[in-house]
């Protein structure tokens, strides 16, 4: 088991939702570690020299940096998402290997999967990403392939690949292109009713950002080298999310069944994660309420 105590640890994308949770969790679990958090614009991971500079002297690298956006935004501005992410990922794995880091973790995405009710790690390369995640999904897949290429060519079995499900939590995007949980929180806080697209029946795998951070640390500690899904493994209907949010704000829910609702069911198979001893701790209700409390304090 890899001990992260007294290690120099780099987190790219440290200002993002998961990055902030990871930095905080690392600080609690490994108070003697020296943690460096980097993000745009201070460090440009499109620049190979910047990547070499930040990796120099590091023992562990958690590579989370990416460009987050809704599937709609990714399809409208594909080059703004896929090209920088491919650059980030290629530069960072090269820099980590060249800097002789002890372990490198690459953060992939649920977007690498083709539409299915259950997402299993080994099914990825038998299919193509969803049309809705086409550009970002391929960018993340190429990132995974680069990591595996370095592991194979240089006999470097020092990398983990994680695929988080639909992540929510403090520091999420509550703006125009927000995902389901922050979108419903924002709507409920600003209106006398919570209007939800569809009928509430679609089932999604939602995981709290702190649980994702714990899963990342767990895979590094246990030196897991095969791709691992980080999800709750439990399906929650959009209706469940809406009820938790509406109860908190004490507003009624209305449904707009004229709007598209997406796939009926999208769940992560978490068998592999459980086999390595990882299970999420935060329930959906607890996670959403903690997110709302953060939103009220920092956004409203």
Q: Which geometry do the CA atoms define?
A: globular
Report the strand count: 14
- SSE series: EHEHEHHEEHEEHEEEHEEHEEHH
The tally of helices reads 10
Strand content: 15-25%
Which value, in Å, is the CA radius of gyration? 19 Å
**pLDDT < 50 runs, ≥5 residues:** none
Q: Write out the strand line-up for the largest beta sheet, numbering strands in chain order.
A: 2-1-3-4-6-11
The helix content, as a percent range, equals 40-55%
Helix and strand composition category: alpha/beta
Distance from N terminus to C terminus (CA atoms, Å) equals: 43 Å
Largest sheet at a glance?
Answer: 6 strands, parallel
Question: Which whole number gives the mean pLDDT?
Answer: 94
Annotation keywords:
alpha/beta; 10 helices; six-stranded parallel β-sheet; 14 strands; single chain; 300 residues; 17% strand; four-stranded mixed β-sheet
What does this structure look like?
The chain has 300 residues and is of the alpha/beta class. The protein has helices at 17-29, 48-55, 71-76, 78-98, 134-153, 180-190, 209-221, 238-249, 271-275, 284-298, and strands at 8-12, 34-38, 60-63, 103-107, 118-119, 159-164, 166-168, 194-197, 203-204, 206-208, 228-230, 236-237, 253-256, 265-268. Helix 1 (17-29) packs across helix 7 (209-221). The chain contains 10 helices and 14 strands. It has a 6-stranded parallel β-sheet, with helices on both faces. Strands 5-14-9-12 form a 4-stranded mixed β-sheet. It has a two-stranded parallel sheet with strand order 7-10. It is 41% helix and 17% strand.
